[in-house]
Amino acid sequence: MTLVDSKQVIRRNVLNKLESISDQNFNKTCQFIASRFLQSTFWNKSQVIAITISTKREVHTYPIIEQGWKENKHIVVPRTNFQSKAMDFYRINNWDDVVQTPKHLFEPVAQKAAEYSSEDIDLIVVPGVAFDRNGFRIGYGGGFYDRYLTNYEGQTVALATDVQIQPELPVEPHDRPVDYVITESRCLTC
Hints:
Layout: H1 3-20, H2 23-38, H3 41-45, E1 48-50, H4 62-70, E2 74-81, E3 86-92, E4 98-100, E5 106-108, E6 115-116, E7 123-125, E8 130-132, E9 137-138, H5 144-149, E10 155-159, E11 165-166, E12 180-182, E13 187-189
Parallel strand pairs: 1-2, 1-7, 7-10, 8-11, 10-12
Antiparallel strand pairs: 2-3, 3-6, 4-5, 8-9, 12-13
């Protein structure tokens, strides 16, 4: 089995486990993870926070984004270019600044949003399907974050349920680990 095949099997298994969690339990878990994150020192020390708008069985980021607005933090979310495999972050100030794409992602409306460079971002909340104790991750297979993180020097954190934590993941040379993973039961320093 190739590394890519191994990642696909792990991705499928973790997504199936996430789908098997009841909505009520998943929502409670997300609330706990968000609360833990919003009390963290890296949240409190960061003014510009890059974060995705959650979909499906990702830890809910809507309350985190709204809390950032209440605290006058600059919330920046990614716009992706699937042809070039590039990603850039743009500030959103409210939900009217966001549109759903044909790929069912929520991204900033280009005409309404100001672009932020990687040097301007204090903290990136990196999405993923599975994570290990060393901060390596399996995402959704596009490689957008691995490419972006290559030139990023700020802090990174992932929000994940305990189900998403694996003992070890297959790692490729281009994979970039996160600094921390916050789950409902712990904060892993990677």
